[in-house]
Amino acid sequence: MNRVVALVAATMAAGWVETAMAHAGTGLAGGFAAGFSHPFGGMDHLLAMVSVGLWGAFLGQPLIYRLPVVFPGLMVVGAIFGMAGVALPPVEWGTAFSVLVLGICIAAAWRPPAWFALAVVAVFGLFHGYAHGKELPSAADPVGYAAGFVLVTGSLHVLGIGLGEVKRRRAGMRLLRCAGAIVAAAGVAFVAEAARSVRVGHTLLPWIVLAVVVGIVAMSCAAMARHATAGRATPAVAWRVLLSWLLAVALLTATLACLPVTPGYAPDHLE
């Protein structure tokens, strides 16, 4: 596990470039490097993605491997919703609450039913993906950007899992819960910022769409949890996780191929 964490950290360092803050509305440079580095420009994304891995490490098998599959997968679905213009509630609320709720789950050492944990992570992945789906059609080389963003999301999950292994050491669980409290405190700040900047419309359609999507996600996760097994970690499991990320990239690439894409970027990004 230490080798995995070192590999992920080295990959992140190699992919680091200065970038705009997440959702700043300043446009995207596009390309794999921009997609890979984008989460590092917004602490909401960075903390949420690492927290998924931390929570998975705390919950143990099989969720330690299922959460890093579900989040990127639903992130791609959210991106497709964003590109298609499907109405959802203000995305700032979703990204802010994702940090707050995940931090609380870790700090409280909460062990919900497997299907519920999967549903929570899935819904938050939907919001994070939706935010970037609004940006993708205007980005130069959106396919490369999408690939970089999905793969760095998975890498951050793995980093969180590696950091979560501290629970095996003396007083490690206490340290892990303290980290969750810090994440939750940051989430409070993000929620407060969202409350100041987001204007909630009067139409109920986005909330109805979200309710339907959440219902479908919850039922799907319940079905997935019923068939879950807590077997030992094997290389085959790791390969399945990696394959799920590649399939997510392929799905997003196919969607982008069907959409008109403007080279460069336009000032029409999600604020």
Summary keywords:
single chain; 271 residues; mainly alpha; 0% strand; disordered C terminus
Structure write-up:
With 271 residues, the chain is an all-alpha fold. The protein has helices at 2-15, 32-37, 43-59, 63-84, 91-107, 114-133, 142-164, 172-197, 205-226, 235-257. It has a domain at 41-228. Helices cover 70% and strands 0% of the residues. Mean pLDDT is 76; it is low at 1-27, 229-233 and 262-271.
Can you describe this structure in just a few lines?
This protein has 271 residues and is mainly α. It has 10 helices and no strands.
Structural class, judged by helices and strands?
Answer: mainly alpha
- Give start-end ranges of low-pLDDT stretches: 1-27, 229-233, 262-271
Largest sheet: none
Number of distinct helices: 10
Give the topology string: H per helix, E per strand: HHHHHHHHHH
Number of strands: 0
Helix content: over 70%
| Bulk shape | globular
Radius of gyration: 18 Å
**Distance N to C terminus:** 38 Å
Mean pLDDT: 76
Percentage of β-strand residues = under 5%
